[in-house]
What we know:
The protein is of the alpha+beta class. Helix content is 16%, strand content 38%. It has 1 helix and 11 strands, in the order H-E-E-E-E-E-E-E-E-E-E-E. The strands form 2 sheets. Strands 1, 2, 3, 4, 6 and 9 form a 6-stranded mixed sheet that branches. Strands 5-11-10-7-8 form a 5-stranded mixed sheet, with no helix packed on it. Strand 7 and strand 8 form a beta hairpin.
Amino acid sequence: KYEKIWLVFGLASLALFLLIIGFAAFWKGTHPQSHIETIDPQNVEAHESFKPENLGLQEVADGKYIVNIVASAFNYDIGNDENDKPVKTIRVPKGSTVLFQVTTKDVVHGFQVAGTNVNMMVEPGHISRLETVMKNAGEFTVVCNEYCGVGHHQMFATVEVY
Ligand code: CUA
C-alpha cells in the first residue's frame, strides 16, 4: 500500500508542475525566447541598435538607459570612447533602469553580469534583451558563460554602478 501512496504523490507533483508551467506560459505570457528579434549575424550594423555609433550606453530618459553590445569571439563590442579606444566599462547611477540588448556576429556567447539577475544566452541571428534595475552600487563583471572557443575566458567587461 506504500506504493500506492507514492504513486499518488508522484502524480500529484506532476500535475502541480504542469499547472505551474501552464500558468507561467499562458497566464503570465512567459514563452521562452519568443521576444527575441531576428538579425543578420553577418551584417549586424544594418540594425539600428547595432550601428557602430549606437553601440554602448545611451540615456533614453531620466534614469533609463539602453546598452547595445555586439559579442564576437572573443570580445564584447560596447563602442569606442572619445579617444577611439574600445569601451570596457559601462557606468550607470544606482537605481537606474538598464535595458541590455546583445547580439553576436559569430557563435553562441553568454552575457552574464555577475552579481545581478542579468544572465542571457546570445545566439547568432537573434537579439537578446533584458531590462533590469541596478539596485546595488559596485563593480560587476560581465562574463561569457557559453564556451565559445580558445579565448572564451578573455571575454569580459565591467558594469560600474555608482
Ligand atoms: Cu564568448 Cu565564451
